[in-house]
Design brief:
Layout lengths: L1 E5 L2 E5 L14 H33 L14 H37 L1
Antiparallel strand pairs: 1-2
Length: 112
């Protein structure tokens, strides 16, 4: 796109060598796939956090720190729980999203 200016106006004009629209083709399949991967990632993060809280409670015999920045929580405990939850959630999201993408590709290939 090029900017074409006339007296007192500015507007966009299509470059002569550009054909079609500037927007990529957006099929409904891509939107549903994006929504599905987002949902899968959020669900995986939720389940991973619940699993870590459960495991932490069983392993230490006490509830995990509610707020890591609370001065009454030991710094080592706060850091350990934060790192554990962060890593578990990241791994769960990656695996869930890859699984959804793999299933989506499999179903797309089977439909064609």
């Amino acid at each position: 796109m090029m900017l074409r200016q006339g007296p007192g106006e500015a507007r966009l004009a299509r470059a002569p060598h550009v054909k079609g629209t500037a927007m990529p083709d957006k099929g409904s399949d891509k939107g549903s796939s994006k929504a599905l991967t987002t949902l899968a990632g959020a669900a995986a993060a939720f389940v991973a956090r619940k699993a870590i809280v459960f495991a932490w409670t069983k392993a230490t015999g006490k509830e995990p720190p509610g707020k890591a920045e609370d001065p009454e929580v030991a710094i080592g405990e706060a850091l350990a729980f934060t790192v554990l939850v962060g890593v578990a959630v990241a791994i769960a999201r990656v695996l869930a999203i890859r699984l959804v993408n793999k299933q989506s590709a499999h179903h797309t290939a089977a439909a064609e």
